[in-house]
């Protein structure tokens, strides 16, 4: 979490998702107990970081009166998904082997990583004009609320505003 406060939520989430993906692949391809234990330790660290960051991002995006419902929806979806995958894991292990669980985790993390910029906005708070990023300065005062920008759109706008050398 200190990394998220220092460099921002998206870079920290990106780092933890990549680390979790790598640890899932290492767990699926392990060659012994030590390798598997080390990969699971890295997976635990990065999964905890991802979970904490998602809760922090929910806190940033939603207003106080919306947070309770959003936290409950997030928690309910997590419990439903974990319960369903716990039931399915015995069938997966008997049909495809115990490593299939880690390959499913790795493919799910790859999908999450590739789609997070599309479906997740950075924030919905309106900031003072003096600290607006360049892509929000062009919005007139008649436009309310301003459009939500994804992280990839923010990067594109910042790249366009850089002076060329």
3D architecture notes:
This protein is mainly α and 165 residues long. Helices cover 75% and strands 0% of the residues. It is built from 7 helices and no strands. It has helices spanning 2-7, 9-28, 33-61, 64-96, 99-119, 134-137, 151-161. The longest helix is centred in the middle third of the chain and has 33 residues, at 64-96. It starts with a helix and ends with a helix. 12% of the residues are buried. It holds the Pfam family Sugar_tr. Keywords: Membrane, Signal, Transmembrane, Transmembrane helix. This is Major facilitator superfamily (MFS) profile domain-containing protein. It comes from Clohesyomyces aquaticus.
Describe the secondary-structure layout.
Blueprint: H1 2-7, H2 9-28, H3 33-61, H4 64-96, H5 99-119, H6 134-137, H7 151-161
Helix pairs in contact: 2-3, 2-5
What percentage of the residues does DSSP assign to strands (E)? Answer: under 5%
- Along the chain, the helix and strand elements come as HHHHHHH
DSSP strand count: 0
Largest sheet: none
Helix content: over 70%
**Which class do the helix and strand fractions yield?**
mainly alpha
């Amino acid at each position: 979490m200190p990394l998220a406060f220092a460099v921002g939520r998206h870079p920290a989430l990106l780092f933890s998702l990549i680390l979790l993906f790598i640890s899932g692949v290492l767990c699926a391809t392990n060659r012994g107990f030590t390798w598997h234990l080390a990969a699971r330790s890295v997976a635990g660290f990065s999964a905890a970081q991802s979970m904490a960051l998602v809760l922090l991002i929910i806190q940033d995006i939603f207003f106080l009166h919306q947070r309770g419902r959003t936290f409950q929806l997030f928690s309910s979806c997590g419990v439903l998904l974990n319960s369903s995958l716990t039931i399915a894991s015995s069938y997966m292990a008997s049909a495809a082997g115990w490593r299939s669980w880690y390959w499913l985790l790795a493919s799910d993390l790859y999908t999450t990583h590739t789609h997070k910029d599309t479906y997740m906005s950075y924030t919905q708070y309106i900031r003072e004009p003096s600290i607006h990023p360049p892509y929000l300065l062009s919005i007139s005062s008649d436009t309310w609320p301003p459009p939500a920008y994804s992280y990839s759109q923010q990067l594109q706008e910042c790249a366009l505003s850089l002076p060329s050398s």
